[in-house]
Amino acid sequence: MTDHAVLPALARPASSRTLRLGVWLNEHAGTIALVAVGVSVMIAGGYALFLGGTLRFYDEQVYVSLTRSLAHGHGFTLDGVQATAYRPPGYIVELLPVYLATGGSVLAMRMVGVLALAGSVWFAYLIGRRVHAPATGALAAVVVACYPLLIYTATTLYPQVPALFLLLAMIETGLRAMPADGNTGRHRLLMALLAGLLGGVLTLTVPTFGVTVLGFVLWLMWRQRRTRGRIMWRSVAVVIVAVAVLPVAWSARNEAQLHSFVPVSTNDGVNLLLGNSPHATAGSGTNADISSYEAVAKQRQFGEVLLDRFYTEQALLWIKANPGHAAVLYAEKVANNFSYHDDLATSGQHSSAQDLVSALSFYPILALALLRVVLFRRFPLRPEEKLLLGTIVVNVLLLAVFFTRLRFRVPLDALTIILAASMVTQFLLRRNGKQLGPEVA
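Request: output the structure for the sequence above.
Response:
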């Protein structure tokens, strides 16, 4: 069955009024994006002021504690004595300058997320231009600026929105390192260096994005497989080296202080067990009961590294002993990535109104993004769209290996918004089957 049979209305050219709207968006896209950045700062900044200096979640307390330890010269430690790698260092290092400058103001540290969201709005615009047209970037910027879950997460001391900024910035600068972008050889090398460093920081901020960083480097290589110029391959080499610098340095620190090879953090084991154990469910997350494992670990007096390995081994043993249950649970966790609410371990942080806002803001965007994929034959996917789609799919599958949370999905929502904006502008900018609006290489 063809698209014409399934969606005959979508085959019609855009009306003159719709077309004028698309053209207007194209012509004023840059201004709209700048306004969206300002709106983002106003809304998220205002909400941060409303929240003030109260820490609502346990994870926030941990991030502040680690930042405080670094600021007071005790190193990366929770107790001021014993070195740790229980949390990735990227977000803590991002908070550190603000902590030092403001004497540890929680409100000031919230502004890190607010500014990261504003930067993400701008980069969503830049990438949207590449995906389809300036109008796509403008729409993406506006939606990212006003998206409730992004605003909520940006004002909480969580690393996901800073990670989104790093992800979008890495993609944009990496694309600028490609010859097709029209930049000089020296400029491409500079962009390659910046993209690599951003990828390294991203890996140390949210380690699961390390797979995305690797995939992005491979995608850049594949896209330029027919390019013979030495500058291009130098750019790829620069990206690879720059990506590795910071993670390798952190691994060396862990080897020296923990006397073991720890690539990023030592919480992978407990996260794997929370998502793969007898009491784990699709949405249980940190609520899963792993007390029996904790009792054994306490009895054996495991250190941080051995504890991480013990939890990993126990999770893998459970999966091996219960392959059918584990497979069903994994599928349920994949589906739960698209849920509109969490079962939170912290009480009093959930409401029906929040659920309603989450559902009404997310599912229409998801539907438009899925429609963009379904209509790939009528509107062929550009390479950048395939990159965004692949990033979403890989991370959804990867997150389900551990356990799922709405905030873990936040960076993927921004990519979904860009795809949804592309779907809208595919129709806004068509007349008599011909595409209007310049595409950005």
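The CA atoms of residues 177 and 191 lie 5 Å apart.
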